[in-house]
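[User]
If only I could read backbone structure tokens as easily as an amino acid sequence. I have put the entry right below:
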Amino acid sequence: MRAESCADAGRRRWFGAQCAALLIAAAGLLALFEGSRLDLVLAGHFHDAARGGFPLRQHWLFDQVLHHGLKTVSYACALLALGVCAAGVRGRLPRLPRENAALAAAGMLLIPLLTTLLKHLTNRHCPWDVLDFGGYAPYVGLLAEAPGGIVRGACFPAGHASAGFAWLVWGVALRPAGRGPAALALGAALCAGGLMGWARMAQGAHFLSHVLWSAWLAWAVTVLLAGLLGSRLSLLPADGEACRRTACPPVPA
């Protein structure tokens, strides 16, 4: 009971810290991009007014490798990961408990799906559609009213980057395997999502805010699923040993 109580307290602290961090991050993103021209300034570095567009949009490295190539690789890796999750759900992987395997599987599926859904609901345009870069739509912030009378946008949040950021869920799912595997998963997800997001920014497909909000969404979905599925969050050593090492007070009888 003592170990269980300590584990419950640890879960509450973890969820509290994650929710607070998510709120702070959301406030920071809104403060950074709403009412500022940062998105436009950064996108402008990839735009060539003389050539009338984003030169890297059709570049073979960005189009064939970093866009379509990485998309294909992400699909293949996701299928392999779902196979690992299936083994975990069956109890065949001691360091990937059933609850955590379910978390990883649900996150890998829901994060890209929710991102795609939001793209069609938010009505935000890609840089190549924005007036500043020769397009037809004004740039508007996330909280501003969407323009009417023009073709709807479907570019927010960043869908391509979400295929990389979806792996953030493994940073939580692998916590029972130890700090190293969990940190490696987090780092790999951030690098993959960042690379995929940057590539699409260079092509004029997304603003920086689109990419960062995509990462935020993946993080938020991961935390929500971890709570709903009752995932194990303790890093090695096990809960009981962690409780003894942190001198968790005894639970009243």
Summary: Confidence is low (pLDDT under 50) at residues 238-247, 249-253.
